[in-house]
């Protein structure tokens, strides 16, 4: 399933992952670690592959469309999150008042 978020949000999620998570995700999905790094904004296409990440210019580093959220979902699972980024409902209500 496709997801849309900002590049900065994608990088922030990667930065929250504990050490060894890139290798863990790669092993679980039978991918090279560089392919997983490329998914999170890396650009080593000699060792890794592109994984359907499209970046358009825009605010917060640009808009990212992930064609396949499998790697993203694995990262969420490692962090114990159901979704990311998490927006606080209270802050949205405060902004509307």
Structure characterization notes:
With 97 residues, the protein is of the alpha+beta class. The protein has a three-stranded antiparallel sheet. Helices cover 44% and strands 12% of the residues. It contains five helices and three strands; from the N terminus they run βαααββαα.
Report a brief summary of the structure.
This protein is of the alpha+beta class and 97 residues long. The chain is 44% helix and 12% strand.
Strand content: 5-15%
Rg from Cα: 14 Å
Q: Return residue spans where pLDDT drops below 50 for at least 5 consecutive residues.
A: none
Order of helices and strands: EHHHEEHH
N→C terminal distance: 34 Å
Per DSSP E runs of 2 or more residues, the count of β-strands stands at 3
Q: What structural class should be given to the helix and strand makeup? A: alpha+beta
Mean of the pLDDT scores? 84
Helix content: 40-55%
> How many helical stretches?
5
What overall geometry do the principal axes of the alpha carbons give? globular
Secondary structure layout plus pairing:
Layout: E1 3-6, H1 7-16, H2 21-28, H3 33-39, E2 53-56, E3 63-66, H4 70-79, H5 89-96
What descriptors fit this protein?
alpha+beta; globular; 5 helices; three-stranded antiparallel β-sheet; 97 residues; 3 strands
